[in-house]
Amino acid sequence: MIETDLDTFTTERLRAERLTAAHLPEIRRMHRDPAVMAQLGGVRDEEQTAAYLQRNLRHWAMHGFGLWILRERDGGDPVGRAVLRHLTIDDVDDVEVGYAFYQAYWGHGLATEVATRCVGIAARALNLTSVVGLTDPANRASRHVLEKAGLTYERDCLHEGHPSALFRKVLT
């Protein structure tokens, strides 16, 4: 399936919607949740949350893809977020596949489902040559998700001052 409008997409169990300014309360909720943020740099304050939202809205405006808020396919409150976003690692521009879910949704395969879908979007809709994933080197669950989505461990690195395990999938 080739997509031209990336504002929304679905997986078997999830519906993704493009991040908008109206999602600030949801981003705030995620950023205040210690379980969600445990592997994402810790809980963020209001200023950090506002800056995060603006950075991700700019990414959408510049690139036509970015962060999506995730709900179960039949609706309801958000369950997490997914992302395809440019980032720089060791002075190289890459596109990251990422995800975060509320703790009640951990262990159900949703991260693998959405990460796999994002890899497909990167390959077919964005025609990227590769994607990367970053996780804390000790986060076995996230490493497993990245591997199930087809990414392979490449090396350890520092990203924004944090030790990270870098995974990559070549798409060509």
Structure classification: alpha+beta
Give the amount of beta strand, in percent.
Answer: 35-45%
Assign an overall shape: globular
Question: What composes the largest sheet?
Answer: 5 strands, antiparallel
Work out the count of structural domains: 1
Describe the fold and architecture.
The chain has a 5-stranded antiparallel β-sheet with strand order 1-2-3-4-5. The protein has a 3-stranded antiparallel β-sheet with strand order 6-8-7. It has helices at residues 24-31, 34-37, 46-63, 110-124, 140-148; strands at residues 8-10, 14-18, 67-72, 75-89, 92-101, 130-135, 152-159, 162-170. 30% of the residues are buried. Helices cover 31% and strands 36% of the residues. Strand 4 (75-89) and strand 5 (92-101) form a beta hairpin. With 172 residues, the chain is of the alpha+beta class. It has one domain (8-170): Aminopeptidase, CATH 3.40.630.
Short précis:
The protein has 172 residues and is of the alpha+beta class. The protein has helices at 24-31, 34-37, 46-63, 110-124, 140-148; strands at residues 8-10, 14-18, 67-72, 75-89, 92-101, 130-135, 152-159, 162-170.
Task: Detail the topology: elements first, then pairings.
Layout: E1 8-10, E2 14-18, H1 24-31, H2 34-37, H3 46-63, E3 67-72, E4 75-89, E5 92-101, H4 110-124, E6 130-135, H5 140-148, E7 152-159, E8 162-170
Antiparallel strand pairs: 1-2, 2-3, 3-4, 4-5, 6-8, 7-8
Helix pairs in contact: 1-3, 4-5
